[in-house]
Every structure is written in C-alpha cells, then in structure tokens.
Design brief:
The complex is a heterodimer of chains A (308) and B (271).
Chain A (H helix, E strand, L loop, with lengths): L1 H14 L3 E5 L8 H6 L4 E3 L4 H13 L3 E7 H6 L2 H9 L6 E5 L17 H5 L6 E3 L4 H13 L4 E5 L19 E4 L4 E5 L3 H14 L4 E5 L2 E3 L3 H8 L4 E9 L4 H11 L6 E7 L10 H7 L4 H13 L3
Helix pairs in contact in A: 1-7, 3-5, 8-12
Chain B lengths: L1 H21 L4 H6 L1 H11 L14 E4 L5 H11 L39 H14 L6 E6 L6 H12 L5 E7 L2 E2 L2 E2 H4 L5 H7 L3 E6 L3 H9 L9 E6 L7 H5 L3 H4 L4 H13 L2
Parallel strand pairs in B: 1-2, 2-3, 3-7, 6-7
Antiparallel strand pairs in B: 4-5
Helix pairs in contact in B: 1-3, 1-4, 1-12, 3-4, 3-9
Classes of the chains: A alpha/beta (308), B alpha/beta (271).
C-alpha cells in the first residue's frame, strides 16, 4: 500500500509543483526515489510530529499541498491538537498519511498499535477519513482526495495486492459492495476486508450468504447508499482492527439509529477495552481479542444456527 | 516617533475598551505588546489594508493568541476594519473572538489559542515563501511562557536547519505566565543563549522603546540564512500603573468603570 501511495503521489507531483511530502523521519526504502526526483519538495522534518503538522498547515496556508507521513500513533495521536486547531479548524489542504493501521506493527507493542485513531479523529469537522483495503482502493482514494482540497487522513495497511474485482469502482464516501449475499451484511474496513472475504467464503460453504462491504471512507459516509443496502437485511456485522469504542462499529450503529434501523440485529467485532501487554504479531493479537477469522466465523454462524 | 507614540496610545485605548466592555481576561498581555505591534504595523510590515490577501504581503502571526485585543486594536487603527467594531470583542457572533481566528476579522492571518502553534505554522509559511522564491517575511509574536512548549524548540531547530532567514520571532518577554513569574515557574534563562544555541541570531531590546524596536526590526535578517529572534523585554499591563503594579492579577481581571476611566486618563497624561 505504501508503494501504491508513493507511486500515485509521484505521478501527481510531476504535474503539480505544489505537492510536498513531509515525513517524521520514517519511510525507509519507500521515499528515496521521490526525494531524488523532487529534492526541494521532500522534507524530512526529523522526529517532531507536532511541529511537522503545524509546518504543513503553514505550507497549506500559502497554497502548498503537503502530505505528511508517519506511523499512525505519531501521525495522529501525538499531534492531535495540531490536527484539530491548525489543520481542521482552519480547513487546510493537509493530507495526513498514517501507516500501520490496526496491529500491522503488532510485535512492536501497544505504543505502535493504531487502534484508537478513528475514534479520536472522527469528531473533527472538515476532516475526510479514508481507510483503504487494498492497492486499488489506495490509488483511487489518493487520486480523489487530491482533487478535493481539505484536511484528509489516510490510514494505511500493508496490502499491495487487490482484493476486490477490478470492476468495482471506488468512490470517496460511497461504501463499496465487494460481494452480494442475501443473508446479512458484513461491513469491514482496511485490513479487515481481506479477513472479511475469507469469512464470507467460509460461511458460503455453510450455506450462509453475506454481502461484504468495504467501508473505505469513514468520514463522510454516504449514509443513503449504506442504509439502502442495510435495509434489505435482518443482520449486520461490523469488523475492524480498532477499539469498539468510537470506531467502525460505533459509526455504523450511529447511522442505523439515525435512520431508524434499530430493528436490524447488529453485532460489532472489534478490540475490547483492554491493553495486551505481551507481544505478538497481527494474527496472534487478533486471536487474543477474538477478532480472528475463526472466532468471528463462530460468532456469526451462531446467529443463523441459534437465531441469536 | 511622536506619531508612533500617539498610535501606541490609541491602540492601548482600543485594548482597554475591548476588555472593559467584554469583561474578558488578558488585558495585561495585550498591553505589553502594544508598542511592538505599533512599530510592526506602522513601520515595518509590507501590508495594505485594502488588499489583506495580497500574496506578496508580509505575514504577521500572533502566536500568543490571548493578546488578540492588541491585534484588533492595531488592525482597526491601520484601517483593516472600523474602530467601532472593537466594541463587539468577544460578544456573541462577533468577528472578534477572544483568540485570533482565521477568516474572521480582515487582517488576521491564522487561528491561534493553543500556545506553541504560531511558530511552526509561521515556519511552514516561511518555507513556502522560500520554495516560491518570494521575498515577503513572516513575523511571529510569542509570549515568554509560550517558550515552555516543546513545539517552540522543535520548530526552532527546523527553522535554523532549513536556513529560514525570512522568519522573525519576537518574544514579548513580560516575565509573567499563568500562575506567576516565568523565573519561578520554569526558568528559561539564559534565554538569548538558548536561542543562539538552537541556531538563531538573537537580539535583546527594551520592548517599549519605540526607537529600539524600529531600529532592530529594520536590520532583519540579522544574518543571512539564519532565522532572527528579537527578545523584547516588556512590562505586563504597560501604560496603566495599577496593572503594572499587580501584573499577575491583570492576566485575569478586567477593569471596572472607575478603573477604566483611571486607565484612560493615565494614558492621556503620558508623553
């Protein structure tokens, strides 16, 4: 995904001299070519994420189009006030690129886990929040958000491959329907879309056919489009590698309540209210929090076997 | 010179009026930077009130956003908006909020309020100007308490590293912060040397000496390819004797009718 991002940004930068890339001293083996091609437009700010966001705001105040890069906790949580006051409040064209959504940096420990970013950023007016699942979505969302001046946060995962059939067109705000099924809806975002595909396939073998949605835009959501799909079903599941509080599940629940869809059964799968202090890779941590493929499959199938 | 003094007095009157009518805090902080703003807006900044968005204008950022009454009084005096508007300071739906806010009153460049934001934003603007080979300059006015903030020093490093000599910081060093004297809370001394150690070219002046302020600002950048900082030693509440005597109190309090009258009459009597 980082490669797709930088390739797309490089193409844009060739046509637009105002594009700049700022990094908080991260991006080894990813940004070298960009730096070589645009030496004046690549700025390694050093390890100062708060100032980096403010500097980007200053650049945007004078017409530049800065892309700011770091690992998600350092790109969003450390400089939250700078994002709030300098970028969103002033409605500036700053794009924040965070890498490591969910447990991508699992073994590095909780400091590097990016599982609260959606919750803290969602309340900020003017901000667009994007959470692509694969290379195609990344490319489409980077290109479309470039066209749209304003604060944007893109939370990236690893996947460079494409998960969805290429005929599915990614459009900012519009939920992407990856597969259609009659028995319920599974909404996933980012890295969880890949797991969602596996879950849907396994359920299919058991005679349960779910619709799978990639909610790549977490703000603003085209609620009309989402609820149009949800209304056709009795059961909705959400899946995220993010805390249950304030993430995708909360977002979908809010939308369903707002649109009077309270009669539809909703179950959210996400990370509970505990820290995991022991180390572990992505799959291990997902299993610890019971959001691995096996656990989710069991929980979903219960709905159909026992009518939970 | 006399003209500057008269303008500074008028700006102080404007500050007092805003705080008297609004009953909001920070009158002392606004008074301490009135002379600096006077010289900046009436002698140094290349700005035109009729073209507040001119891309080649000098930029001024009030990083100590709580002193915004001083900026409003100055902008009104300069003709960015009618003086009558000062009466709306901090009122509901006013274009003059209690901390400087972009897209409100004409002439206000950025939104500040959280301390430690103005300098790095100014540095971004300075970097943009360098990129586009433009000659305008960015002036940032900070408070000394604000220099406790980590972002001040992060971004100071950045400006020096990138040789941004188109940015000028002025510290309104009135020696007071939230709960007392800066010396007693977080001692920043040796202050000038700190900035120099961070790669800035620093000068220290009397922040109420109009001639010194003008002369120093006329000589920026002090060194080519080096950012400049002017440490302006000031007095919180400058111009109003009872505020100068109880400086911390007047970070929070606002004058009542009688105090307002006394303050105005004191200003009238000053040379």
């Amino acid at each position: 995904m980082r490669k797709t991002f930088i390739d797309t940004l490089t193409q844009l930068a060739r046509q637009d001299k105002d594009i700049m890339l700022l990094t908080g001293d991260l991006g080894f083996s990813v940004f070298e070519d960009f730096a070589k091609e645009f030496p004046n437009r690549f700025i390694n700010c050093g390890v100062m994420e708060q100032s980096m966001i403010s500097i980007a705001a200053g650049l945007a105040l004078d017409g530049k189009k800065p892309y700011v890069y770091s690992i998600i906790p350092f790109a969003t949580m450390r400089p939250f006030e700078q994002i709030r006051n300098d970028v969103c409040y002033q409605n500036l064209n700053v794009k924040i690129i965070g890498i490591g959504a969910g447990f991508l940096y699992g073994a590095f420990g909780s400091t590097h886990h990016a599982i609260e970013d959606i919750a803290i950023l969602r309340p900020l007016p003017n901000l667009t929040i994007l959470s692509p699942a694969d290379a195609n979505e990344t490319k489409a969302l980077v290109l479309q958000s470039y066209q749209k001046s304003g604060p944007t946060y893109i939370r990236m995962v690893k996947a460079e491959k494409n998960l969805a059939p290429t005929h599915i067109k990614t459009i900012i705000s519009k939920p992407s329907i990856i597969q259609t099924g009659k028995d319920g809806v599974l909404i996933a975002t980012g890295t969880c879309v890949e797991m969602g595909l596996d879950i849907v396939a396994t359920l299919k073998e058991n005679g349960i056919h779910l619709t799978l949605i990639s909610l790549h835009t977490l703000k603003p959501v085209d609620e009309k489009s989402l609820t149009h799909t949800l209304k056709k079903h009795n059961r909705v599941f959400t899946l995220e590698e993010h805390r249950m509080a304030g993430g995708l599940g909360s977002l979908v629940a809010e939308i369903m309540m707002r649109h009077n869809l309270g009669k539809i059964t909703l179950e959210n799968f996400g990370i509970n209210d505990n820290y995991h202090v022991l180390t572990g890779h992505q799959e291990h941590l997902a299993a610890f929090y019971s959001i691995d493929m096996k656990s989710i499959f069991k929980k979903i199938i219960k709905h159909y076997k026992y009518g939970k | 010179m006399n003209n500057y003094k008269e303008i500074a007095k008028e700006i102080r009157r404007g500050i007092l009026l805003q705080h008297f009518l609004s009953k909001e805090s920070h009158v002392g902080s606004a008074l301490s930077c009135a002379d600096i703003l006077t010289v900046l807006y009436f002698g140094i900044l290349k700005i035109n009130p009729k073209k507040p968005s001119d891309p080649n204008r000098d930029r001024f950022i009030l990083s100590k956003g709580h002193a915004v009454a001083a900026l409003y009084a100055t902008l009104a005096e300069k003709g960015f908006f009618p003086k009558k508007m000062l009466e709306t300071f901090c009122q509901n739906d006013s274009l003059l909020p209690g901390h400087s806010t972009k897209d409100t009153a004409p002439g206000v460049e950025v939104s500040t309020g959280g301390l430690g934001h103005g300098l790095p934003m100014g540095i971004g603007m300075a970097l943009a100007a360098k990129q586009d080979k433009k000659n305008h300059r960015i002036f940032v006015l900070m408070s000394d308490g604000e220099c406790n903030e980590g972002t001040t020093w992060e971004s100071a490093l950045f400006a020096a590293h990138h040789r941004l000599d188109n940015i000028v910081v002025m510290v309104d060093r009135n020696g007071q912060q939230g709960l007392g004297k800066t010396k007693d809370i977080i001692n920043m001394d040796p202050f000038k040397e700190k900035w120099e150690a961070f790669g800035w070219s620093a000068k220290e002046i009397d922040g109420h000496n109009i001639i010194a302020i003008e002369k120093t600002l006329q000589s920026i950048p002090f060194k080519k390819n080096v950012p400049s900082i002017i440490i302006a030693n000031t007095i919180k509440g400058k111009g109003v004797s009872y505020m100068e005597k109880n400086q911390l109190t007047w970070h929070y309090k606002n004058p009542n009718e009688e105090q307002h009258k006394i303050a105005l009459s004191e200003l009238d009597k000053q040379p």
